[in-house]
Amino acid sequence: MKLVFLGPPGAGKGTQAAGVCQRFAIPHISTGDMLRAAIAKGTETGLKAKVFMDQGQLVPDEVLVQMVKERLSESDCVNGYLLDGFPRTVKQAEALDMISKPDVTVDVEVPDEKLLARLTGRRVCMACKGTFHVTKLGDATVCPDCGGELIQRDDDKPATIQKRLDVYHSQTAPLIDYYEKCGSLKKVDGDQAPDKVFEAILVALGG
Ligand code: AP5
Ligand code: MG
Ligand code: ZN
């Protein structure tokens, strides 16, 4: 299954990816995670990307298209993939159609007013990359799953979040139309409990 997760920042794409990838035995390819790994390693791509990411802007299309092209050529993608955070522009979607056309695009929908609270309260585990929210963490100061260090992402500051939402509406939301025209779009209500969102995604994927 070749699957794309669309949806605004904080919609729950990363949260839902783990279960969906396990169910369909496909790799989770998050371009945001790949870029953050490149920044942590201090690669040339990472250094270039950081400037854009810290401002809530998109990293240039050519960088992302090349990165995804290389990743999709790896052997674990033989059964398909789950792309999370790519494509994000019509140019990227056109490039993906040439590289490996997706079968299904799931648009996880959450109203803007809910996203700010989700993102300002997000904490990510440095060790297992698990995603949590302060409202569920209680007194925990380390990852409930593995004991790793919990951090706040650099771009989860209110001013940067607002910029990311603006960028989503102007540059990424047009992809809803793009995939609707392709006939591969499935809309899922992301404004419900995570397990309900998971069920809705499975229904959209036909099991
Ligand atoms: P990226 O890492 O892709 O970030 P994003 O799209 O902004 O999405 P997020 O990861 O913030 O949200 P998510 O939907 O994964 O939500 P999550 O599950 O964590 O990209 C970062 C940057 O990299 C971009 O700004 C750009 O600069 C660059 N970039 C990446 N890809 C690019 C591309 N293709 N082209 C150009 N540039 C690119 O959940 C969020 C929070 O909500 C968590 O706290 C979670 O616990 C909570 N939550 C999840 N589900 C629920 C629920 N159902 N109810 C209540 N809370 C929930
Ligand atoms: Mg994510
Ligand atoms: Zn962890």
Characterise this structure.
- By secondary structure, the chain is α/β, with parallel strands linked by helices.
- The relative contact order is 0.19.
- The longest helix has 15 residues.
- The radius of gyration is 16 Å and the shape is globular.
- Helix 4 runs parallel beside helix 5.
- It contains ten helices and eight strands.
- Helices cover 51% and strands 15% of the residues.
- The model has no long low-confidence stretch (mean pLDDT 96).
- It has a five-stranded parallel sheet with strand order 2-3-1-4-8.
- The two termini are 12 Å apart.
- The structure holds BIS(adenosine)-5'-pentaphosphate (AP5), magnesium ion and zinc ion.
- BIS(adenosine)-5'-pentaphosphate binds next to helix 1, helix 2, helix 3, helix 6 and strand 6.
List the helices and strands and how they pair.
Elements: E1 2-6, H1 13-24, E2 28-30, H2 31-41, H3 44-54, H4 61-72, E3 81-84, H5 90-100, E4 104-109, H6 112-120, E5 122-125, E6 131-133, H7 134-137, E7 150-151, H8 158-172, H9 174-182, E8 185-189, H10 194-204
Parallel strand pairs: 1-3, 1-4, 2-3, 4-8
Antiparallel strand pairs: 5-6, 5-7
The protein binds BIS(adenosine)-5'-pentaphosphate, magnesium ion and zinc ion.
Magnesium ion is lined by residues 13-14, 30, 32.
